Amino acid sequence: MLTRDTLFVLAVVGLSACAVSRDGLGQRLSVEQPAETPSSPRDDETEDEAPKPTGRDDARVLPTPDRPDSAVAPPEVDCALTGLQALRLDIEVSWTPEPGTLYVGWTPSATAGQGTMSLLALADARDGVVTLRPCGASLPPVRSTSGVTVRGSIAEATWDAVETRWTANVSTTCDRPGCAVSTSILPAQLGVASPAGEEWPAAADPVPAPLLRDDDGDGRPGLGFTLEEPLRLSAPMGFNWANSVAVTELFVALRLNTQLSGNLDGCGEASGTASRVALQSRVLGCRLDTGSECLDDQTAVLQRSLPTWTAGASRWQLKRLPADSDCEDVRSALP
Question: Where would a tag sit more exposed on the chain, N or C end, judged by fewer CB atoms within 10 A?
């Protein structure tokens, strides 16, 4: 017969055996359970949700509905130098008095000096040829030995009326930023049309009539260069006027030969340097403060008083313009 103490001992032993059995079963389960399988998506997720970037350096381009599931290389940039462009050319110049200078303002005219001469043009590049329409120019002020500084400008309306065009060949090594750009010799003339490769007549000689050109259609050769202040002009010995006169406008001719080289800075922009630069200018006539035209002798005095230009460092820049652009757009794009 089992006593109460015996039953208590049996109960304790039974509970211990059950605990050992559970631990052993747990160990077997932890060893033998199969690998974890992917869980089903939650209700708030969709199966086609785009994976999140990993942040690794080798992360690929994520797919999009309109692109295959693979990395796509960006398209090559095409910066072909075609269409309308604004061109600005800045030339550092120095000058000395023309040999045999006569007298302007009672004293020898131009003293030695230096400054910057600028040219603006509307460039149209097509099929390896660039056509230039002149749109503006500025000349540095010139000081005389009497202390008078001669300054002036050619009106924008005059440039807008010029119908003359210049052409040169243009080439690029490729059509991407950094590619090289170069032109052939650019022959630019206004007021005098000397045959290609021929020099202008000497400063002391009159320009033959067949070489004179009225580029702006105002009825006289050269472009009107309006002086900021009238220039007093006296008659040297042997000339055919007795008293000093005041000149308010010059009619000038300009000639520039140069060659451009540089690089594409981006799509629609380029810049570089100009080489083989040659500059000349002539006075073809003038107007007095009385409104009358100058005598030939008065024009000759002004012409012989012009300085001789020497070109130094020169730079150019190009900027793409819309297809309907004109000279006003050039002056706004590259002031």
Answer: N
pTM value?
A: 0.73
Half-sphere exposure of 177 (CA within 13 A, CB side): 7
∠ CA 113-237-105, rounded to 5°:
35
What does the DSSP 8-state code read for residue 206?
Answer: P
Q: Could you list the beta-strand ranges (E) of 57-165.
A: 83-97, 103-104, 107-108, 113-126, 129-138, 142-143, 149-150, 152-153
Q: At 51, is the pLDDT very low, low, confident or very high (cuts 50, 70, 90)?
A: very low
Rg (CA), the chain: 42
Reference 121, options 186, 177, 185; nearest CA is 186
149 beta partners: 143
Apex CA 130: angle with CA 125 and CA 133, to 5°? 100
Token pair for residue 40? Answer: 């089903």
Contact 88, 317 (CB under 8 A): yes
Comparing 70 with 151, the larger pLDDT belongs to: 151
Would you state the structure tokens that stand for residue 166, as one six-digit string?
A: 């210049």
**Residue among 223, 227, 252, 259 nearest 91 (CA):** 259
> Tokens 């005598």 sit at which residue?
295
Token code pair at residue 244: 């000093």
Three-state secondary structure call for residue 232: strand
- d(CA 248, CA 235) in angstroms, rounded, equals 17
CA distance 272 to 262: 4
| Pairing label, strands 83-97, 245-266 | unpaired
Amino acid at 218: D
3-state secondary structure (DSSP) of residue 17: helix
> pLDDT (tens digit, 9 = 90+) per residue, 160-177?
999 999 999 999 999 999
From the number of C-beta atoms within 10 Å of its C-beta (0-12, 13-18, 19+), residue 201 rates as middle
pLDDT tens digits, one per residue of 272-323: 999 999 998 999 999 999 999 999 888 888 887 788 889 999 999 999 999 9
